[in-house]
Amino acid sequence: MPPTKFVPDDFSIKKLDEKTDLAGFDCTESDDLGLNEFIHKEALDYQREHMGVTYLFYNEDKIAGYITVAMGSISVKMTKLRIDVFGDKIRYPAVLLGRLSVQNGLRRRAVGKCMVYWCIGLAKRLSEEIGIRFVVLVTKDESRIKFYKECGFEESAIHQDRDMKMMYFQLF
Amino acid sequence: MYPNIHNAGYWQMPRRINAKKHQKAFKQTNSHKDKKVANVKPYPIPDLEGQLAKEFEKKIRESPTEIRKKVLCEASAVFSRTKMRK
Prior knowledge:
The complex is a heterodimer.
Chain A: E1 11-15, H1 35-48, E2 53-59, E3 62-75, E4 91-102, H2 111-126, E5 134-139, H3 142-150, E6 154-155, E7 165-170
Parallel strand pairs in A: 4-5
Antiparallel strand pairs in A: 1-2, 2-3, 3-4, 5-7, 6-7
Chain B: H1 13-21, H2 50-61, H3 66-81, E1 83-84
């Protein structure tokens, strides 16, 4: 019998701080992007320097996953959206989904999907206060690209790096 | 004189005179603009022409697709349903 999928109600969210206990969190499984090292060693520094805010998703009392978000932008040429008034000299404002990782034993149970949707919801909420047109991320590996496509993201036709692919979700 | 960007009008003069002499319609060519770099689209465009190409352009410029609308709707629900931990 396949393990049950999580639903949004299963999670509570907390912003990372100095008091957060990360001891039980391990996401080393197929972690070629160094996401386990990031949460344990760098995430707090990013937050102190206002370079990215990390949100931890708790299922009961255990951390199921985390995301780090920051502000970003995307070149007009990388998207399919053309707004005639602005031409293609500008960059669209965006929320950058910088990091996303799920606890080892909880993969393929919709934790990542909940976190991505939460991030899109956050971007939509923030867009009422500041200009945001997209949610963007950079990733590699076909399985991850497939996952983000299932979440409504599109792959950019232009990539700055051969390995890393830029993906975007158009909010409006 | 060789045609270049500075004598674009002038070098066509013989052709204009010739056309007049032989009572032919003179069709001006903008050869100096021919070398302009093609407008390369950043996204893949299927091999379409005319109306079909226009329709495709219109389609890809269209705002939220059905999938996006659905995701946006679900995302808003997820965001509002998820509680902050104390």
